[in-house]
Write a structure and sequence with these properties.
The structure is a single chain. The protein is of the alpha+beta class and 229 residues long. It has one domain (3-224). The protein has helices spanning 30-36, 47-59, 78-83, 118-127, 142-152, 162-166, 191-197, 216-224, and strands at 3-4, 12-13, 20-26, 71-74, 99-105, 113-117, 154-155, 172-177, 185-190. Strands 4-8-6-7 form a 4-stranded antiparallel β-sheet. A 3-stranded antiparallel β-sheet has the order 3-5-9. A hairpin with a 7-residue loop joins strand 1 (3-4) and strand 2 (12-13). The chain is globular, with a radius of gyration of 18 Å. The relative contact order is 0.26.
Amino acid sequence: MKLKNSVGRDEYISIDTSTILYHVASATNLPSILEQGILPADSTHRDNLETKLSHIAADHGIEFPVVRQDCVFCYPSIDIALMGIHPDTECDNSLISHSGIVLVDAASTETNLYMGEFRYISDAIDFQYMVRPDEAMISQSFEDALARYAKSFTEIENISQIENISEQFHTPEVVIEGGVKPSAITECIFWKQLHTQGLPQPVRAGGIEEKGLSRRSRIEEKYRNGNCR
């Protein structure tokens, strides 16, 4: 069964939701994402955290298989991705209205995928600016947060496992080693569309490619027409 997408498109689409991942991005970064794909950031506020992660994991007898600075990050559900851009109040004129969610076809990635509990990374980030945990945190210290994240880290050996593995986590984060190529980006949904028109309604793929998820050309056209703002 095909459902009409509720983000204002006229065509009917089919999406295999079991293989779609969601990456939060700024609309201003879309041209480079479309040209180069989703690439690891050169430097972020997590640099110190990510440098220490493998050392702390080793101290706890955990072999951490990737360098986080060489990875990009997605979520296995749109609801979790929305947590990263959903404002507390109406703010159409703020920068957050220029955020979007890039949909990635996990089946088109050509590198290793892993999943970890994002709340531990969130705690570790907070511990860089505070001495004691607050009531919202689930870790006792910076080291505890990173050790628990490393312990939670799970390889996704087959993309068919994504849904089942994600059920083991409260806030699952998908870690993609090396990045995402442009051809694996299948769609982009912008915050203003979500805010004014509601969530899209993807359905499982019916095997008809010509009615499948819109590709790069449609995203580029959307950006050129200014619909991303």
